[in-house]
Each structure stands twice: as structure tokens, then as C-alpha cells.
Amino acid sequence: MPARIATPDDADTLAPILRPADATEVLRMGEGPVASVLRRSIARSVEAYVFEDGGHPLAVYGIVQPSAMDPMYGVPWLVGTRYLTARPKQFLRETGAQMAIWRTRYTVMSNMVDARYAQAIRWLSWLGFSIGAPMATGLHGAPFRHIEMRA
Fold it and tell me: Is 97 left (phi over 0), alpha (psi -120 to 50) or beta?
């Protein structure tokens, strides 16, 4: 599953083909339309990539360093497209490898996940993130869980 560097322009191609649960999670965060959120996420990331297979984008992911004051803190993110379901084992292998790399660069990685997105929570747990209790932090009080991994 090769990965290429993502650009903000990828957002317009990827947003319409996201898995429904991924698009819903983005909307429930309350930060705007899906394509706009993807564009900002890619632009703000110190690293952002698109997993591809046979010319189809499977997922877009990256990591944001929210503060130059703490370069060892990162905010990883990923959303998958409808093509991702065809390669689950390869996806697990590749994301595990990417997390191993990021663990050498960041002492703390954290973000939020939609509390209703059970598949994403299982995957994040498998990667080694601790998963917090649901908190009403999303749009209109949508519940999200804090995730964190420490090196």
C-alpha cells in the first residue's frame, strides 16, 4: 500500500468518497464542511500522506504539531475512503508501521474520536492508544473520547 505526500487539493477528491462513518465524525467535530476540514488538516500537518492502491485513495492521514513550544507533542489523524475496506490487513500493517515511526519522534500523541465510532475506537486501541470516557465536546454536544499514546 504505497503512500504519497498529501496536498490540500486532495481534500476535494477525498471528501466525497470518505466512508460514511468518517465523514460523520468530521461533521460531528463541528469545524465545518468535510472538504474544508480535510484541507486545513492537511495544510496544518507537519507530515500528511495518502495511502493508495491501484490508483484508488484508501485513506488520508497526518500529524499536526500544535505548538512549536513542544515539538514532542503530536496530534495524529486519519480518515478512510470507501476503498479502504478492501485492504484491512494491509491497512493495519501500514498504520502500525507509521505509528512506530511517530513514536520515535513524539513523546505524546493525542486527539479525539467520535464516541459512537466503534470501529475507529477498536483500531486506535489496537494501535496502542488509551481511550478516555465520552465527553460532550463535539457539535451540539456530540460525544467524543480523548485518545492518547505516550512513548
Answer: alpha
